[in-house]
Amino acid sequence: MKISFVFLLVLSLALSISSAYSQDFISCVESNSANASSISQLIYTPGNASFLPIWQFAVQNTRFLKPSIPRPSIIVTPTDESLIQTSILCAKRHGYEIRIRSGGHDFEGLSYTADVPFVMIDLNNMRSIDIDVAKRTAWVGTGAVLGELYYSIAQKSNNTLYFPGGTWPTVGISGLIGGGGTGNLLRKYATAGDNVLDARIIDVNGRILDRKSMGEDLFWAIRGGVASSFGVVVAWKLQLVPVPEKVTVFIVNRTLEQGATEIFFKYQSLATFEDRNLYIRSQAASEFIGNTTQKTMRIIFQGIYQGTTNELIPVLDKVFPELGVTREICQEMTSVQSTLVFFGRPSTTPLEILTNRSAIPKSSSKTKSNFVRTPIPISGLREIWNKFFENDLSGGLLVIPAGGRMDDYSETATPYPHRAGTLYLLATSVNFVGQANDTTPVSLRRLAWLQSLEELLTPYVSQNPRESYVNNNDLDIGVGAANYKEASVWGERYWKRENFKRLIRIKAKVDPKNFFKFPQSIPVFKRRGLAQ
Question: What is the 3-state secondary structure (H, E, C) of 230-296?
């Protein structure tokens, strides 16, 4: 009884102290704001009934919903830039770190969790979209998600313009661009970050900067170097790209018994295909054969062609006849309808679903990523399939092809370095379906299997460095940042050496005290010369 009483007393004291600190922050914001009464309606603490629903709303990976996950001390939901400015000022004054959440798709939950007291700036209210069809540009609030952007572009341009972003509708525009951003138009128009014209960012001193006032170094850094390492981006000016009024989509399913291994081997060279209008991603997983205990692999090839079926068929007959695409399985549709298909909905689904964040499913998973520069041989593919047969059907594999327009950029054009010579991005994952959380015995076995798959892939993926995609961030590869040697373990995997060193130099200039920090953010070293 005494132990329980002491525990409750300590807990009560901790909550009281936390509440006092939170009130200090809120008082600071109110005293530095023109309209304190309206500001108070945009700030939430754990004692507020809306606190938990707001925090949970954009937790897209549900493995971070377990009770042990640390939550913010305060949530700020700004409707304009001024509240962000005062939140930065008051967070510094009262010893809070900042986390910035747009769509909530951070693979390690870093935009809404932390092991230290922190203020979460939730940008959900700042999602205005202003499209200029004649100039093919759009100013987009950083709280907007891809579904909202694609819907708006399609409506405004009558399906003649689009943006080369990702395929999942609830991905935030800022997180996507901040890590580079890949999608179905990668081979045609390169990354999302390559198609940004300007931005507005609030720096550590509360200044609002555009491309001209921030300078080309910082503008370079935020388009692939994780923008939240440098400040709070509040809006992006995007270059919209022309697309046909109708594109062609096809889906091909093949199992090992249907020659999937040989087809996949040929598919790996898609990056070398000349026609940039052709993009085919693939997904693979193991499954049981009928009602037997024997397993096979099923590979799904999802293709999109920037043109008609009549234009597509001769291309595939020439470069990839093994895939067996026929006119009967081709569907012509608008680009925005293709987005529906690529996240698993029929093309006839009402487009308004793209603007309904609550209608898009969430997942519970862990992901790792690599880049492949040389086709994995048949023998290697069979090794990988055999590893999948050891899994309990919770594992998956996703391939994002490169090449085309990507080969036109140097690997230092933006921080995203995975350019010429890259065949594809290879993402591997496990889900935690059927498990209460990611720490059950079954979940731990799945994570161990994923790590063993990562080790098996070693001879088949890029080396020196072994490249990874920062938008598929993975804390398992390292978090140390005391010096360059420590940080390079993970930093060079995401950005390669030249880009990582440049990012470190820019960070030291714009945020020398490292206020905007989190695991795997761009580091600031205590002694000069450590980034050399």
Answer: CCEEEEEEEECEECCCCEEEEEEEEEHHHCHHHHHHHHHHHHHCCCCCEEEEEEEEEEECCCCCCEE
Sequence length of the chain is 532
279 residue type, one letter? Y
356: which DSSP letter? -
- The model's pTM is 0.94
* Helix, coil or strand: residue 125: helix
DSSP 404: G
Radius of gyration of the chain, Cα coordinates, nearest whole angstrom = 24
Are 162 and 185 in contact by the 8 Å Cβ rule? The answer is yes
Closest CA to 508 of 521, 496, 498: 521
Residue 37 above 70 pLDDT?
yes
CA distances from 63 to 93, 266, 516 (A): 33, 36, 25
Please give the pLDDT value at position 53. Answer: 97
Query: Is residue 285 a contact partner of residue 397, using CB atoms and an 8 Å limit?
Result: yes
Q: What six digits make up the tokens of 186?
A: 């990668």
Whether the per-residue pLDDT at 331 is higher than 50: the answer is: yes
**Crossing angle of helices 146-157/335-342, nearest 10°?**
160
Find the DSSP H helices in 292-370: 309-319, 335-342
- First-to-last alpha carbon distance for the chain, in angstroms, is 58
Q: How far apart are CA 227 and CA 175, in angstroms?
A: 8
pLDDT score, position 286: 98
Distance CA 342, CA 215 (A): 37
Residue type, 366: K
Q: Both tokens of residue 121?
A: 């700036």
Task: Return d(Cα 278, Cα 222) in angstroms, integer.
Answer: 29
Question: Are 456 and 383 a contacting pair, CB within 8 Å?
Answer: yes
Task: Return the SS3 of 511.
Answer: coil
DSSP, res 359: G
pLDDT at 5 over 90: no
What are 413's two structure tokens? 């054009």
| Band of residue 39 on the pLDDT scale cut at 50, 70, 90 | confident
Name 221's Cβ contacts closer than 8 Å, sequence gap at least 6. Answer: 227, 229, 230, 415, 502, 503, 506, 507, 522
Q: What is the pLDDT of residues 484-527, one digit of tens each?
A: 999 999 999 999 999 999 999 999 999 999 999 999 999 999 86
Q: Average pLDDT for residues 213-231, to the nearest whole number? A: 98
List 219's β-bridge partners, or say none: none
User: pLDDT tens, 439-466?
Assistant: 999 999 999 999 999 999 999 999 999 9
**Closest CA relative to residue 136, chosen from 197, 209, 194:** 197
Residues 6+ apart with CB under 8 A from 133: 156, 157, 161
Give residue-wise pLDDT tens across range 246-303. Answer: 999 999 999 999 999 999 999 999 889 989 999 999 999 999 999 999 999 999 999 9
Rounded CA gap, 480 and 493, in Å?
Answer: 14
Pick the closest to residue 268 from 314, 338, 322 (CA basis): 322
